[in-house]
Amino acid sequence: MTDHYFSADPSVPFTREDFTCEVWGKELALTSGSGVYSRGHLDHGTAILFRETEPPAQGQVLDLGCGYGVIGLAIARSVPLANVTAVDVNERAVLLANENARALGLEGRFVACTPDAVPTTYRFDEIWSNPPIRIGKEALHELLLTWLPRLAPGGRAVMVVGKHLGADSLQRWLGDQGFPTRRLASAKGFRVLETRRTE
Predict the structure, then answer these.
(1) Could you tell me if 28 and 60 are in contact, meaning their C-beta atoms sit under 8 angstroms apart?
(2) Tens digit of pLDDT for each residue in 171-196?
(3) What whole-number distance in Å separates Cα of residue 25 and Cα of residue 122?
């Protein structure tokens, strides 16, 4: 059976691969690895997310489906008043994200963990994500309905989703669930969506 990056414990041999990218005018030196999404490069969707947005001003931020941590680490690096919690079911991803935080000197404001380690009472001002669309629609909906209610009132989620992977139908579905969602940008086959918690 082939392992996927969303496996809890990938069985493929673990090899690390370093690369560097620039996000919001700051350079990030990162270590990725086998069995973790987008090994050795910044994936196109996340690159578009960064290009089409500005970082949050401050607050408690969740990096949902963090992989080796690039989104949350970019926020922590760019926003001194942000504290980032990063979650992923892939334990190898969590390991790499925390290693990257230490290497960047951000471990005081960034922590990666598996989802069950986050107290259910914890609330976030913002959620940022390149969500794992390929886990399937039902699992994706369950994931979003687990975490979006953890936004503080007035909080928002910023997500990048491929148009061919159902970004427009996801936008409508989120609205139907009581989370008004608008398109912030559209570029190279991707949508950048902003979802609000209005309560």
Answers:
(1) no
(2) 999 999 999 999 999 998 999 999 99
(3) 31
Instruction: Give dist(CA 146, CA 18) in Å, integer.
Output: 33
Per residue in 104-148, pLDDT tens? 999 999 999 999 999 999 999 999 999 988 788 999 999 999 999
Distance CA(50)–CA(151), nearest Å, equals 21
Q: What Rg do the C-alpha atoms of the chain give, in angstroms?
A: 16
The C-alpha angle with vertex 67 and arms to 65 and 72, in degrees rounded to 5, equals: 75
Closest CA to 193 of 148, 142, 149, 139: 148
Whole-angstrom distance, CA of residue 166 vs CA of residue 130: 13
Mark out the alpha helices in 24-166 (DSSP H runs). 44-51, 70-78, 91-103, 137-147
What's this model's pTM, rounded to 2 decimal places? Answer: 0.91
Three-state SS for 138?
helix
